[in-house]
Design brief:
The protein is α/β, with parallel strands linked by helices and about 230 residues long. The longest helix is centred in the C-terminal third of the chain and has 21 residues, at about 180-200. It has helices at about 45-55, 60-75, 90-95, 95-110, 115-130, 170-175, 180-200, 210-220, and strands spanning about 1-15, 20-30, 30-40, 80-85, 115, 135-145, 150-155, 155-165, 205-210.
């Protein structure tokens, strides 16, 4: 028999979009399971402004607060008992990111955790752990709008991690702002050098990709669900 125990919500404030997922916690056949009951995504694109000007403009901050208010009401309708709100690259880069988070706390009573790249990687780590095989060595790649996170797993244990300020939205804004090719290539070269060195050191033979950009590339391939893609 299946029992619903409670509902949880997670809100991810990314550089490209804000996402909210509400899940029911179920107890079934002696195990706890999560069942998604609501998913909302809004392309707010905080990174477009932050990576170009260094801050969140007033009009975008107003829209941000309004959208979080709608998510608060949605959580109330679903009778969510616990929630977690995390913000990543755009808000931690913005000069007024802390001020916008404080405004949300005062007006809506919602606490936003502005997390660094390492904490971001740790949350993702919890999701992919069950996909790893004991005798395999993996490189995990998470490409976001503002940053790219790398984790290397050796026999199911994370042995190396690094975050680089390279993302889809950040790259477009850097190009538009006139950042030189040499500056951009230098960062790409450092990232490539880190991947090559650590992949060789830990004998990595497989990679796992997460994030909207990688999901889009995967959907464009002919691979079926959970199938491997060879490059």
């Amino acid at each position: 028999m299946e029992y619903q125990l409670t509902k949880l919500a997670a809100i991810d404030i990314g550089s490209n979009a804000v996402r909210c997922q509400i899940s029911a916690v179920l107890f079934y056949n002696g195990r706890y399971r999560l069942k998604r009951v609501e998913y909302v995504r809004y392309p707010l694109r905080l990174g477009e402004d932050v990576f170009a000007t260094g801050e969140i403009p007033a009009r975008k901050a107003d829209k941000f607060v309004k959208f979080l208010h709608s998510l608060k009401l949605l959580m109330e309708v679903h009778e969510v008992s616990h929630h977690l709100i995390c913000a990543t690259s755009a808000m931690r880069t913005a000069a007024n990111g802390a001020a916008v988070a404080e405004r949300v706390r005062q007006e809506l009573g919602l606490d936003i955790q502005v997390i660094d790249g390492q904490a971001e990687a740790e949350y993702i780590n919890r999701v992919i752990e069950h996909l790893l095989e004991d005798n395999r060595h993996y490189l995990h790649i998470d490409v976001g709008g503002g940053s790219t996170e790398f984790n290397i797993y050796h026999a199911r244990r994370k042995v190396a991690a690094q975050s680089f300020e390279i993302g889809s939205i950040r790259r477009m804004q850097q190009e538009e702002s006139g950042r030189t090719v040499e500056q951009m290539n230098g960062l790409w070269q450092r990232m490539e050098a880190w991947v090559r060195e650590n992949a060789r050191r830990y004998h990595v033979t497989r990679a796992i990709g997460t994030g909207g950009n990688i999901s889009k590339l995967y959907s464009m391939s002919s691979a079926g669900p959970m199938a491997r893609v060879t490059w």
